Amino acid sequence: MLKRLDWMFWLLIAIVLSRLFSMALVPMIDTTEARYGEVARLMAETGDWITPWFNYDVPFWGKPPLSFWSQALSFHLFGITEFAVRLPSWLANIGMLGLIYTLSRHLTDHRQALISTLIFATMALSFVMSGAVLTDPFLALGTTLAFVSIILTMSNPHSLWRWWFFVGLSIGLLAKGPLVLVLVGGPIFLWVLWRWQWHRVVRIPWLRGTLITALITLPWYIAAELKSPGFINYFIIGEHFLRFVDSGWQGDLYGTAHKEPFGTIWLHWIQASLPWGPIALVIVIKRWITSRQLNFFCKQELNDDQCLLLLAALFPSLFFTFSGNILWTYQLPALAPLSLLISMLIANSTTISKLKKTAFITTLAFVPFVLMFIGFYSYFYPDKLKNEKSLVAYYEQNKNPNTAPLIYIEKLPFSARFYSKGQVIQMTLPELKSLLARRNNATYFVVSSNNNLNEVISSLPAQVTVEFRNRRFTLLKNIINKSR
Q: What is the domain range of residue 208?
């Protein structure tokens, strides 16, 4: 039996390793990924493990530090590279795959457990996030650990999993904040009402477990507020309440609101779960049509564990339905329970032996193949993407002892800060003109947006040459040589 499944195991290994390889190819993309990468780089540089920093003089109150801790540690171990900053997300993904396999093996068997992990590994969002610099992989690791732990605990109340449930909550609290309590507590509460399972939930050591969660998480929250007063108010009220209720929230200190029409989160569910979410919908709809029963969905018998998984898979969409300030990454916590349910659906509708193995493997390889192709394209044509890696590298190769720091006019991308290790300056055009009027005998490299290029060139002294251009910016060289 196991030998017949070896091909699925090795396919899983190949898919996971393909992401490990591809994440080293793609440069840091503006804005979100490069921003978080720069926050982690600043943590590694300053050695400040309490307060993440948005800039050298601006604290970052937007997210807790778990992802930044892991990325800064990775920088210390492997240097400041794309591979190092993305490695923690890849490891978080490995953790989720292990948890999915563990729970699926407990509920079904080895074969279906492998199918569950393959489905999760090849969903669009989970594959992307397994090598992206964001906080969401750690939030999803926390929610996945919590749901796996509570299901395993309810079948064996005395197992150590009852304590891992609270560790999962702690991971979420240190990765994204109180949102984890909503994403985990909401499905559990609805499940208890739906299935009337109070007697199973009370088996969880809530009092002692809550104390464990508090001991793990509160020290950092207290230290962060003491070191940077105002953090708690902004993070709890602003990031977790105002951002949710106001799609055009103007209080964001570090970016802009992502305003979307209400209900867009369900479209993100389709995008995030590609190709498996749409496949599952087709199977369900087909079975509904062939059953010729209007009450088909009501008659489907789901056991208690499947009901909880279903709620966990749908709750992020339900919760964010009436919020317009959303991203598709908000669906990541839903994908682990969804992959378990889809594997059960496939197992109940047909078997892998009845499916053509080639078609099954092709479906599994669809997302990894497409994104690997994008990765190779990005490696050979990095200037087609929103990043400043090549521009900064050109400046570093062509500067001399009389060259001033690299200057960006008006807009300074985070990727420029990351690749220059913070050695880049942002100025307005009047500030630059004033600087050039005061300085003698120096070489300046000035970066202008392509939209304002003519205005910037006309404002600079003579001997301006165009040195480098990418999709957003143009690098100009200006040599000042005034006689004394």
A: 3-380
